Amino acid sequence: MGLVGSMNIPDNLLLKTYRDQPGLFLDRKSAREEAKELINRLDISTPGLSTAVQKLSGGNVQKVLLGREINLSPRVLITAYPVRGLDIGASMRIYEMLGEQKQKGVGVLFIGEDLDVLLALCDRIAVLSSGKLTAIVDSRFATKALLGMKMAGLTTDKEDAYA
Fold it and tell me: Which UniProt keywords apply (predicted)?
């Protein structure tokens, strides 16, 4: 689930937890406290808690979204192009957040096309070619050349030994 641009950070945090709250009313105080903690921990630049998410920069929106999901203590995080359109600083922070989750034992499925990033962040890289899975490569043995061959649908026995 994404974010609702017209809603502020606390209300966007409630989108994933409101059903778990007892009673008829939402606990907005807890949501505000969680939002303050998220803003401080992830260095989210915002004029205030009541600011609509759509008024934030792309990097800050991504931090809110990823921070909300991380706060739910997931066992698996699925990300698709999580830094597309972001500046280098915001991109690095998002990559750090994903790396921290990986270190905590969270399974991170990272969908992307930047080979440098995939090689740096991933333990294994699944390669698709013409809509089909052509390889799953251990990143310790992967190179851009090998991944390029797999993306083109080419294979050799030598490279398959590392899959």
Answer: ATP-binding, Hydrolase, Nucleotide-binding, Repeat, Transport
